[in-house]
Design a protein that fits this description.
One of its GO terms (molecular function) is L,L-diaminopimelate aminotransferase activity. The chain is of the alpha/beta class. It is built from 12 helices and 15 strands. It has a 7-stranded mixed beta sheet, with helices on both faces. The mean pLDDT is 97. Bound molecules: D-malate.
Length: 411
């Protein structure tokens, strides 16, 4: 019998979203009538149709694949040049940011990227995460053996937890101690908080001063509407020397079911060897990609490229406006219900305080049983999320309006 990776045994029972799905399934089986009016605002999964520009581009790509002369087999592992160029030009260079196409690595999703990135880091790093946090950052560190066991609050030994609370507007304070790796996500999942330019400048300054690598998850950058707020970490001077950025087409282009994302690793970004000497991270990730990944599909990459055409950009804008319109309605409904509300302004998540005395899972049950609405319990994102819940704005307008009515009717 082969030895197993016992780090997996340290993980809490289930990944948050499958756990919610399990509870919802039990509820729908026990209450078939209520199940018919169930509205899902739990997992942040897009609901609206794929943009037309993407569909046309993908159809065309399928037709190309149907002819021997234009058929595509394995593509470049790091992504087709046409997509890397489109990303570099539109997302970075057009905004005055110095990122080259060959610093972009196309993949099939940010969940995989934020987990897989640990492959290129050694063991023994001091790692900081926010609390609450997107659970993937924590669980993948547990799987990799970068943590001790979980305590009674679910906090893993060895990790530095940066508490995000109303006091700091849910934006992590700079730690007093030196860490080697830090994960930040803005606009934030789950709290919907956004970091200001000054806050990100302070983070980059800290990272440069402490040789810290910043893993910056910007999967929700398209939802930033305030022009003063940075959409990429590379808008901050010095970030090329300390930060990796994760980006995704899931939420802006409606690609959760299509699968395409990318990682930016500047060639100037260094890690350190045991002997203290520096080594660039870019060739390590490139090598990892070539060995463990055969590239996102040609058809999907042609679809992603279409998001950067004029039609594609206009259609993305419409999608964002739709979801942010939903977020505004949810924010208003929760405020009217007298609940503390954060997020939902530059992010598609609304972060809401539970009515007094209720825990996050009690609120989950109340919403499920009394309103037949699925939300995400804040405690599932970490102990600092206890007493909060998250509502996802990814839904149809009609469903969101109905959710608002049901929130108003809650006793
Ligand atoms: C969420 O609900 O937090 C997201 O859907 C998770 C993800 O994007 O993987």
């Amino acid at each position: 019998m082969a030895l197993i990776n016992e780090n997996y045994l340290k993980l809490k029972a289930g990944y948050l979203f499958p756990e919610i799905a399990r509870r919802v399934k039990a509820f729908t089986e026990a209450n078939p009538d209520a199940a018919k009016r169930l509205i899902r605002c739990g997992i942040g999964d897009v609901t609206e149709a794929l943009p037309e520009a993407v569909r046309y581009a993908m159809h065309e790509a399928v037709d190309e694949m149907g002819k021997r002369e234009s058929f595509h087999g394995y593509g470049p592992e790091q992504g087709y040049d046409f997509l890397r160029q489109a990303i570099a030009k539109n997302d970075f260079q057009a905004r005055g940011l110095n990122i080259e196409a060959d610093e972009i690595f196309v993949s099939d999703g940010s969940k995989c990227d934020t987990g897989n990135i640990l492959d290129i880091f050694g063991s023994g790093n001091k790692i900081a995460i926010t609390d609450p946090v997107y659970p993937v950052y924590v669980d993948t560190n547990v799987m990799n053996g970068n943590t001790g066991d979980a305590d009674e609050n679910g906090a893993y030994g060895g990790l530095v937890y940066l508490k995000c609370t109303p006091e700091n507007n849910f934006v992590a304070d700079i730690p007093k101690e030196k860490v080697d790796l830090v994960y930040l996500c803005y606009p934030n999942n789950p709290t919907g908080a956004v970091a200001t330019r000054a806050q990100l400048e302070a983070w980059v300054k800290y990272c440069l001063a402490n040789d810290t690598t910043l893993l910056y998850d910007a999967a929700y950058e398209a939802f930033i509407r305030d022009p003063e707020l940075p959409r990429s970490i590379y808008e901050i001077e010095g970030a090329r020397e300390c930060a990796i950025e994760f980006r995704s087409f899931s939420k802006n282009g409606g690609f959760t079911g299509v699968r395409c994302a990318f990682v930016v690793i500047p060639k100037t970004l260094m890690g350190r060897k045991k002997d203290g000497s520096k080594h660039p991270l870019h060739p390590l990730w490139s090598r990892r990609h070539s060995t463990k990944f055969n590239g996102a599909s040609y058809i999907v990459q042609r679809g992603a490229e279409a998001l950067y055409t004029d039609e594609g950009k206009a259609q993305v804008k419409e999608l964002i406006e739709h979801y942010m319109g939903n977020a505004a309605l949810l924010v208003e409904a929760c405020k009217k219900a007298g609940l503390p509300v954060y997020g939902g302004v530059n992010a598609p998540y609304v972060w809401v305080g539970c009515p007094s005395g209720l825990s996050s899972w009690q609120m989950f049950d109340k919403m499920l049983n009394e309103a037949n609405v699925v939300i995400t319990p804040g405690s599932g994102f970490g102990s600092a999320g206890e007493g909060w819940f998250r509502i996802s704005a990814f839904n149809s307008r009609a469903n969101v309006e109905e959710v608002c009515r049901r929130i108003a009717a809650l006793k």
